[in-house]
Specification:
Keywords: Cell shape, Cell wall biogenesis/degradation, Peptidoglycan synthesis. One of its GO terms (molecular function) is transferase activity. The chain is mainly β and 166 residues long. It has a single domain, classed as L,D-transpeptidase catalytic domain-like. 4% of the residues lie in helices and 35% in strands. It contains 1 helix and 13 strands, in the order ββββββββββββαβ. Strands 1, 2, 3, 4, 5, 6, 10, 11, 12 and 13 form a 10-stranded mixed beta sheet that branches. A 3-stranded antiparallel beta sheet has the order 8-7-9, with no helix packed on it. A hairpin with a 2-residue loop joins strand 2 and strand 3. The longest helix is centred in the C-terminal third of the chain and has 7 residues. The protein starts with a strand and ends with a strand.
Amino acid sequence: MTVIRVDGAAGRLRCGAIGMPCTIGRSGVCPADDKREGDGCTPLGQWPVRGVLLRQGKVSPGGLRLPWRWIREGDGWSDDPADPAYNRPVHLPRRFSAETLLRDDDAYDVIVVLGHNDAPPVPGRGSAIFFHLSEGRPTAGCVAVERADMLRLLPMLMPGDVMEIM
C-alpha cells in the first residue's frame, strides 16, 4: 500500500521518494469530524484512493492501475445535504445542487476520487473531496498539484492506496 502524505501546513505532498508542492482548501485543514459542507476546509485523516475520472482529449489513461473512466457530459457530484445521493456521482441537470465535473478550467482534467465521507455519506459533512489539478489558488477543500506532478504520480497509484492529510 502506498501512502500519499499531504502536509497541509507546509503545502507539500510526498509519495515515496517524490515530493512536490500542493494546495489545499482555502480555510486550511480541519479535523474530519468538524468538516462541514462549503467550509473550504481540507479534512485531516487517511482517505482511500477510490479511482480516477479523466477528461477525454486532455489526459491519456496509459499506465493507470487504478479503476478509471472518462468524464462525460452531464456528470456531476452531489453537494446538497438534502439530496439522497449526497457526496455521490450524479447526472445533471438535477433538482438538487451538484458540482459539474466538466469545468471550464483544467482543474478536473484529472480527478482522483478520495474516500472521504462516503461509507456511508453523512449529509453536510463534506462532499467532493478530490485530488485534482492545481488551479493556482487554494481549493474548496480538495488537494491539488500541478499537471506534470499529477501525471508522474498517477501510474504509481493502485487499489488499496491512501492519501493521508496531516
